[in-house]
Write a structure and sequence with these properties.
Blueprint: E1 27-30, E2 37-42, E3 46-53, E4 58-63, E5 67-69, E6 76-84, E7 87-95
Antiparallel strand pairs: 1-2, 2-5, 3-4, 3-6, 6-7
Amino acid sequence: MNTKRPFIPIAAQENTAGIGHNNKITFIAYPNPVRDVLTIKTDGTIKNTEVINISGQNVKSFTDTTLLDLSDLSAGVYFVKVNTEYGIATQKVIKQ
C-alpha cells in the first residue's frame, strides 16, 4: 500500500544572533608582533580573552584584563579571541 502524504511546508527556525544588527566588535591588539605583553583595546568591556595556538588549542586564558602576558609562549602564530558584551572577535598575533 503506497499512500502519498500531502506536502506540508514547515517554517525552519534559524538562530541568527547579531545578523541584521550592527553589533560588530572590533579590537586592536598591539604590539604585533609581540615579545612579552600584548595590549588589547576595544570599545566594550572585556569579559574574557583566550589565546589559541595554530592547532586550535587554548594555551592561555585571561579574565577582565586588557594586558596579556605572553612571555611564556613559544615564538609562533597565535589567535587572540576576545569576548565582550558586544560579542566575540578573533585576531591573528605573532609572538617573537
